């Protein structure tokens, strides 16, 4: 399948079967779309010859795979809800401001150790395992977090395995002790910051109702300063209140952060929710960001924006591209009492309780449903050019907005497709610049 699209005055062909991206002129784009194009016989013959050469090389109209992914029941990762409490009261929080529609509580060390034992026991032949410390705010239960890391490393060494740890934090509690520990032990750290002070403070408030920007920015800057070349990213959220979110991404870049994500809010709060009527403004904003992203990169002042970072030639492997995320089968979320859920966005929903770290997986029927779910079970993805990049979207978003993990949420799809087109344009401009620099 060919996807022909334009970005301002540039035209591109993306071949879904091969993953190849081709820059082209307007006449070629219109011809491939079946539109009337004024061309001489010689021009038409030359164009057809070029297209045939690409097809023969396997770079155009290449057959798409329909092979179902190979999935095991080996668990590879857990999201540990080390704290169902938070020191912020963010308006858009899907986790009910940290409480997950239940009591505010923290995970005990015994439960955390049981979760590690569960992962080691259920991981089969996997050698590298992952644990994400999540909340609420996980640093509110720092002692348990720290002891869990030490326990996991010791137990993994006994059976020839290794853990990679991640923590997601709002930054309020990042003192020297916590910064030192996270830098030493975490493979990645996700730092929540929405951008400009007025944007951040409008939704990310402290328990007493005040804005939290001033309280966290210095902590996050200090953390990134000492982080060095280790992985981190600053993760923001944009809402209907800041559809000019490119300014927030650039504010974060200008603040010294070189690894940034800015995600659309997932909420049904009327004044914050993204609606269909917002899509034209959002699509324009992604182009504003892409243009500035390219300009800064050309000047040697680039940064990494998560959604513009795609690799069409390298990874991920095809099996991962069609597998979806692994939630509910290879990956589980563990709440403070030890109950298991498919992922953090299902946590607390009794329909999706899958068992416990103490008793194991009890809902094999639910696990089978998630294991069988993949790109090819999401019928609306069949004709979408983005399918091998987005893998069918987020199961939790699909369920919460559409009532079915197999039913893609149209607003998310629209934003994803625009981001991918922008990312492809960024990639093409980068390659063109690199080719120019060679000569």
Summarize the helices and strands and which ones pair or pack.
Blueprint: E1 2-7, E2 10-15, E3 20-24, H1 26-32, H2 41-56, E4 77-81, E5 83-84, E6 105-106, H3 109-122, E7 128-134, H4 142-158, E8 162-169, H5 176-185, E9 188-192, H6 197-203, H7 213-227, E10 231-238, H8 246-254, E11 259-264, H9 279-298, E12 304-305, H10 318-321, E13 331-334, E14 339-341, E15 355-356, E16 360-361, H11 364-372, H12 387-390, H13 395-402, H14 410-437
Helix pairs in contact: 3-4, 8-9, 9-14
Strand composition percent: 15-25%
Biggest sheet: strand arrangement: 12-11-10-9-8-7-4-13-14-15-16
Radius of gyration: 23 Å
Largest sheet: 11 strands, mixed
Summary tags:
single chain; 439 residues; alpha/beta; eleven-stranded mixed β-sheet; globular
Brief overview, please?
The protein is of the alpha/beta class and 439 residues long. Helices cover 38% and strands 17% of the residues.
Describe the model.
- With about 450 residues, the chain is α/β, with parallel strands linked by helices.
- It has a domain at about 1-65.
- It contains 14 helices and 16 strands.
- It has an 11-stranded mixed β-sheet with strand order 12-11-10-9-8-7-4-13-14-15-16, covered by helices on one side.
- Helix 5 (about 175-185) links the parallel strand 8 (about 160-170) and strand 9.
- The longest helix has 28 residues, at about 410-435.
- The chain is globular.
């Amino acid at each position: 399948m060919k996807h022909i699209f334009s970005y301002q005055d540039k035209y591109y062909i993306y071949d879904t079967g091969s993953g190849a991206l081709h820059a082209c002129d307007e006449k070629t784009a219109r011809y491939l779309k079946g539109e009337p194009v004024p061309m001489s016989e010689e021009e038409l013959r030359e164009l057809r010859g070029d297209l045939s050469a690409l097809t023969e090389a396997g770079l155009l109209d290449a057959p798409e795979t329909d092979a179902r992914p190979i999935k095991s029941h080996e668990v590879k990762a857990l999201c540990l809800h080390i704290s169902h409490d938070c020191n912020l009261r963010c308006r858009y929080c899907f986790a009910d401001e940290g409480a997950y529609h239940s009591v505010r509580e923290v995970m005990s060390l015994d439960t955390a150790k049981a979760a590690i034992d569960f992962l080691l026991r259920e991981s089969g032949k996997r050698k590298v395992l992952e644990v994400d410390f999540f909340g609420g705010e996980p640093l509110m239960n720092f002692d348990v977090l720290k002891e869990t890391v030490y326990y996991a490393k010791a137990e993994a060494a006994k059976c020839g395995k290794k853990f990679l740890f991640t923590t997601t934090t709002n930054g309020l509690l990042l003192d020297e002790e916590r910064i030192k520990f996270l830098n030493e032990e975490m493979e990645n750290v996700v730092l929540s910051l929405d951008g400009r002070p007025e944007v951040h403070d409008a939704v990310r408030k402290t328990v007493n109702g005040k804005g939290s920007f001033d309280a966290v920015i210095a902590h996050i800057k200090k953390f990134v300063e000492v982080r060095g070349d280790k992985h981190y990213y600053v993760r923001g959220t944009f809402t209907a209140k800041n559809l000019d979110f490119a300014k927030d991404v650039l504010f974060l870049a200008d603040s010294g952060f070189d690894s940034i994500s800015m995600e659309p809010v997932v909420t049904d709060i009327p004044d914050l929710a993204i609606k269909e009527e917002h899509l034209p403004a959002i699509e324009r904003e992604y182009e504003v960001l892409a243009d500035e992203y390219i300009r800064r990169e050309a000047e040697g002042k680039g940064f990494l924006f998560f959604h513009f970072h795609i690799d069409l030639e390298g990874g991920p492997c095809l099996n991962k591209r069609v597998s979806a995320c692994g939630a509910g089968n290879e990956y589980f979320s563990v709440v403070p009492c030890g109950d298991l859920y498919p992922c953090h966005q299902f946590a607390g929903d009794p329909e999706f309780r899958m068992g416990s770290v103490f008793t194991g997986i009890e809902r094999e029927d639910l696990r089978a449903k998630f294991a069988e779910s993949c790109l090819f079970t999401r019928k609306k993805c069949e004709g979408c050019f983005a399918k091998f990049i987005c893998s069918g979207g987020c199961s939790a978003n699909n369920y919460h907005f559409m009532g079915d993990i197999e039913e893609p949420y149209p607003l998310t799809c629209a934003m994803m497709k625009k981001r991918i087109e922008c990312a492809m344009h960024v990639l093409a401009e980068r390659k063109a610049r690199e080719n120019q620099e060679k000569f």
